[in-house]
Design a protein that fits this description.
It is built from five helices and six strands. The strands form two sheets. Strands 3-4-6-5 form a four-stranded antiparallel β-sheet. It is an alpha+beta fold. The relative contact order is 0.17.
Length: about 180
């Protein structure tokens, strides 16, 4: 039964890592990355529609993206949505597609992005620790009801801490990789 609690905690922690990774992918690093556009919605026939559902987003080279709408009449709406987003980029509309060239990031902007990445990672660490705390609380309630032996409980606490430390280490590695990606361009 205690192993089930650890497996459930691992599953929740894995979901946290997936969420953190998706949030980190949205941070602009000076390289063309289609994931940056995942959070942009376009007013398409009076419905807010994710950009990647109404257009093909392709990387042309390290600093250039092409957005090819499936419906050419939506090109102005797509351009407007990109301009209104918080990405700080200027799309170039040629009538058939939208080209986006990413200018190099300034040192100050890189430092700001490192802080944003650090905040995302720290939120992930807090989430991991909260999952550990909730799992321990659940097991302690069960311990009172079912009289789990003290040595079994100690082993469980050691095991959940090892799992937590592993996930925190993985988050720290993600942070180092993202900071290197932001600062190396």
């Amino acid at each position: 039964m205690l192993n089930q609690n650890i497996e459930l905690a691992k599953s929740k922690m894995e979901q946290t890592l997936v969420f953190v990774a998706s949030e980190l992918n949205k941070i602009r690093t000076g390289r063309a990355n289609p994931d940056m556009f995942n959070k942009i919605s376009v007013n398409y026939y009076d419905n807010e529609t994710p950009l990647n559902q109404i257009a093909n987003i392709a990387v042309l080279d390290a600093i250039t993206l092409s957005i090819q709408p499936f419906d050419k009449t939506s090109i102005d709406d797509i351009e407007r949505a990109i301009l209104e987003s918080d990405l700080g980029i200027n799309p170039s509309n040629n009538g058939n597609s939208i080209m986006i060239t990413f200018p190099p990031l300034s040192v100050e902007r890189r430092q700001e992005l490192v802080k944003v990445a650090s905040k995302i990672i720290e939120d992930g660490r807090i989430s991991i620790r909260n999952i550990r705390r909730e799992t321990i609380q659940t097991v302690k309630k069960t311990e009172e009801d079912q009289k789990i032996p003290e040595d079994v409980m100690k082993d469980f606490l050691d095991d959940i801490q090892v799992v937590t430390d592993d996930f925190i280490t993985r988050l720290n590695s993600s942070q180092k990789n993202k900071e290197a990606e932001i600062l190396d361009n």
